[in-house]
Specification:
- Residues 29-260 form the Aminoglycoside phosphotransferase domain.
- The protein has 326 residues and is an alpha+beta fold.
- The chain folds into two domains: 4-94, Phosphorylase Kinase, domain 1, CATH 3.30.200.20; 101-324, Alpha-Beta Complex (Aminoglycoside 3'-phosphotransferase, Chain: A, domain 2), CATH 3.90.1200.
- The protein is built from ten helices and nine strands.
- It has helices spanning 4-14, 64-73, 109-127, 136-141, 148-166, 177-191, 227-235, 244-258, 262-289, 300-312; strands at residues 21-27, 35-41, 49-53, 81-85, 90-94, 196-198, 207-210, 213-216, 223-225.
- The protein has a five-stranded antiparallel β-sheet with strand order 1-2-3-5-4, with helices on one face. It has a two-stranded antiparallel ribbon with strand order 6-9.
- Helix 5 (148-166) packs antiparallel against helix 6 (177-191), helix 5 packs across helix 9 (262-289) and helix 9 (262-289) packs antiparallel against helix 10 (300-312).
Length: 326
């Protein structure tokens, strides 16, 4: 990757009509392989600028720019793109500040409720898209859709990194036969349902709050999928705590806002919650044990407890309880 002086030179070239860029402030956050900087200019500008430097290590990294334009076209609040240098793999985007939904986690529910509702309003624009009506060109711009193969990949990610790598359990043995069958039933069922578009990593640190409005970030993984996957990602986010009553209130609010049947949505929500929490546990185990990011391990106990509750809440999922051990 370019060093700081090279990045400043690239910035001056990419933003020739802006005041001279003078400083870079590194932003350290999350488990991404990308680098983020807050830019300082020699005089004030009408909007702040964040510089994102990406690599090709992940296939979704270069999809950030087309995803931004797609979401903006759907009416979703996302940062503006000021410039993109594909050769240098640098993107200059609007600085929306550093206050995310996660920052409100200790606030009373009366304060958080409208912020969560604003967040759900934004993502509902994505969910309203009929994925079956998308063109071949549309699909090519996005990551692989949530089909049976992708659900299976997520499940294997969980089995490899959490169940085997972190917990030391071998799921190839006969005692896990029913669990393996349940995983197959889960992915087949989810893959059979009609899809909209999903954010894919819809959690509290990927929503910025500015003047009471919600702005989505880190959405380069947008793809066809189930709205309930995003809902489970947000409402069961291991980074924050929501009560059962608060989750139920938000689900009911979303169903009313989008005109969906709450009972049918809730069942799919539970199934997607199992899928999402398994993926999250695989990620926490992989990041902490293999990618030198040990702080992610602190989220494992909460995710395990929430996944256990989800498993117990649906007949299809109870056979998966042995994957979590005693």
């Amino acid at each position: 990757m370019p060093d700081d002086s090279e990045l400043l030179q690239l910035t001056r070239k990419a933003l020739p009509d802006w005041p001279r860029a003078m400083a870079l402030e590194a932003i350290v956050k999350g488990g991404s392989d990308r680098r983020f900087y807050r830019l300082g200019f020699e005089s004030s500008t009408e909007a702040g600028v964040i510089l994102m430097v990406y690599t090709m290590a992940r296939p979704d990294n270069p999809r950030f720019v087309p995803a931004t334009y797609r979401l903006a076209g759907l009416g979703v609040q996302v940062p503006r793109i000021f410039a993109h240098d594909a050769e240098a793999m640098c993107v200059w985007v609007e600085d929306l500040g550093n206050v995310d939904l996660h920052a409100y986690r200790e606030e009373p529910w009366e304060t958080r409720r409208p912020l969560y509702q604003a967040t759900l309003t934004e993502v509902a624009h994505l969910h309203s898209v009929d994925a079956a009506a998308l063109s071949t060109e549309d699909i090519a711009e996005m990551e692989l859709c949530f089909d049976e193969a992708l659900y299976e990949w997520e499940q294997n990610y969980f089995l490899t990194h959490f169940v085997k790598g972190f917990s030391g359990r071998d799921t190839s043995t006969p005692e896990f036969a029913k669990a393996r069958e349940a995983l197959q039933s889960l992915r087949c069922h989810l893959a059979s349902l009609p899809r909209g578009l999903v954010h894919r990593d819809f959690q509290s640190q990927n929503v910025l709050i500015r003047e009471g409005s919600a702005w989505l970030i880190d959405y380069q993984g947008v793809r066809p999928g189930l709205a309930e996957y995003d809902l489970a990602s947000l409402l069961l986010d291991p980074y924050v705590t929501l009560s059962d009553e608060e989750r139920d209130e938000l689900l009911a609010w979303y169903a009313s806002h989008t005109g969906r049947d709450l009972s049918a949505m809730h069942e799919t929500y539970l199934l997607c919650a199992a899928q999402r929490l398994m993926q999250a546990l695989g990620a926490y185990a992989n990041l902490s044990r293999n990618l030198n990011k040990p702080h992610f391990e602190q989220h494992i106990p909460v995710a395990v407890e929430r996944l256990k509750t989800v498993y117990q809440g649906h007949p299809m999922l109870k056979a998966l309880l042995p994957l979590l051990g005693e």
